[in-house]
Amino acid sequence: MTDVTLHDVARASGCSVSTVSRVLAGSRPVGAATAARVRKAVEDLGYRPNHVARALRSRSTGTIGLVLPQITNPFYPALVRELTYALHADGRAVLLADCDDDPKAEAGHIAALLDRQVDALLVIPAHEQHSRTAVAAAAARVPLVLLDRGCGPGVADSVAVDNSAGMALVLDHLAAEGRRRLCFVGASGTASAAAERRAAYEAGAGALDPEAPGRVALGDFSAAWGRAAVDRVWTGRPAAQRPDALVCANDLIAVGALQRLRQLGADVPGEVAVTGFDDIPLADLADPAVTTVRQPVAELAAEAARLLDRRPVGEQAGPRRSIRLAPRLVVRASTSRPSAPHTPKSVPRTRPETETVQ
């Protein structure tokens, strides 16, 4: 059996080839009755569009390249899912590449995706400085949006959560819970999110304790580092010198810290509270469940798709837009003292999203 062609659909529906093409592409209005006949013919004949031929005619492949730093971080699969939904709704497919936190591999993946003629790129940069050259070069060729992390001002359009606002929510909550001896457990500043969360902690923690901004332990965004950090800041210290709250830069660190504290017999949250950031599913499954900052993942994906549409192919020049979305604080049992019954709740956003032009 030969493949069904556009001409076959036209004959079966009693329409011209150009009319059938307009119905399938949605490029121009077509009468409802005509459109219904075309769609019925498409269904009856089992017609499937030839995307390769369409790409050759339109010079558009209908594909978006997505480069991630580390797919094993549970936050990113949730973001990939929402991005896929947002882009598929517009008829665009996603090509995914994982660089394993290596800027050199990231540059190679970006080059490979450009060789495949993707229409645009979405990049979560592995390193704020070392990713900049490859990202800037790609942004000069196709529409490119940075997600979750940045590469410095003016490099490309970007959308991320407001990390400073999220950390402010955490500090305000811990202050209301009577916590004062805070310690930040974060990741070394190779990514902008790590640096922003640490800077926001250092800027705000001094209001609770003048020594709190100096209590910082840095490793990576992993549960293993969370366990190791507890040995560094908790084990072997007198009770009066132990922190009464661990402010973790992401949920994986927080879950690892909780595991180690329980192994050591620490009372969480009686002796020490633990907070995270991102609100991955594991945060709610931990024992006790982790108080954390929830990123608006669906909104991140929607704004990324919108930014791609606002900078069509061939219009890479012009000011860069930077959008910061407001987070929410989800309060769970890891910060509620025994005297206060635990009631999970979501603390509202502190301010609406912001957009700046660079």
Spell out the blueprint of helices and strands.
Elements: H1 6-13, H2 17-25, H3 32-45, H4 51-58, E1 63-68, H5 75-88, E2 93-98, H6 103-115, E3 120-123, H7 132-139, E4 144-147, E5 157-161, H8 163-176, E6 182-187, H9 192-204, E7 216-219, H10 223-233, E8 245-248, H11 251-263, E9 273-275, H12 281-285, E10 292-294, H13 297-310, E11 321-325, E12 328-331, E13 345-347, E14 354-357
Parallel strand pairs: 1-2, 1-3, 3-4, 4-5, 5-11, 6-7, 6-8, 8-9
Antiparallel strand pairs: 10-12, 11-14, 12-13
Helix pairs in contact: 1-2, 1-3, 5-13, 8-9, 10-11
Summarize the structure.
The protein is of the alpha/beta class and 358 residues long. Helix content is 40%, strand content 17%.
Overall 3D form? elongated
Low-confidence stretches: 340-344, 348-352
Biggest beta sheet summary: 7 strands, mixed
**Mean pLDDT over the full residue set:** 87
Beta-sheet strand percentage? 15-25%
Strand order of the largest sheet: 2-1-3-4-5-11-14
Oligomer: single chain
Helix content: 40-55%
**Extended strand count:** 14
- Gyration radius over CA: 25 Å
Distance between the termini: 56 Å
Number of helices: 13
**Protein structure class:** alpha/beta
Order of helix and strand elements from N to C terminus: HHHHEHEHEHEEHEHEHEHEHEHEEEE
